[in-house]
Amino acid sequence: VSYMVGKDRIIFATKEDHETPSSAELVADDPDDPYEEQGLILPNGDINWNCPCLGGMASGPCGEQFKSAFSCFHYSTEEIKGSDCVDQFRAMQECMQKYPDLYPQEDENDEKSSKDLEAASMEASAAKEEKGSS
């Protein structure tokens, strides 16, 4: 008996199952499997929320806010990319401030403000995205 939970298959085996020789076959990796490491942007242009490059940001306590802000930035068609996403980034920032252990904030005395870091992060993502789409 087996069933799928997300991307994982759960299999229950009996003692008899273990006593018979395995008939399992290795299957080649599916290049269309979105859970495989394909980088930040999938071939169809969608965001790969499972990319290790996101460092778990999409699944943490502020995952929905992160996804909203990052999606807005990714699909932004404004001349200054992401300039229409201020509200989403503000919501993400406010959420992250509630979890200082998970999302350390830099000291106010630091030369860079959180907005500078946010912009640098988005620019780096955009550069990766452009690099990966060629």
What's the short version?
This is MIA40 protein. The chain has 134 residues and is mostly helical.
Q: Could you give the order of strands across the largest sheet?
A: 1-2
How many helix segments? 4
Helix content: 25-40%
Number of strands: 2
Termini separation comes to 44 Å
User: Could you describe the largest sheet, including whether it forms a barrel?
Assistant: 2 strands, antiparallel
The structure class reads mainly alpha
Rg of Cα set? 20 Å
Low-confidence stretches: none
Strand composition percent: 5-15%
Helix and strand succession?
Answer: EEHHHH
Describe the structure.
By secondary structure, the protein is mainly alpha-helical. The protein is built from 4 helices and 2 strands. It has helices at residues 15-19, 63-75, 86-97, 114-132; strands at 2-5, 8-11. It has a two-stranded antiparallel sheet with strand order 1-2. A hairpin with a 2-residue loop joins β1 (2-5) and β2 (8-11). α2 packs antiparallel against α3 (86-97). The chain starts with a strand and ends with a helix.
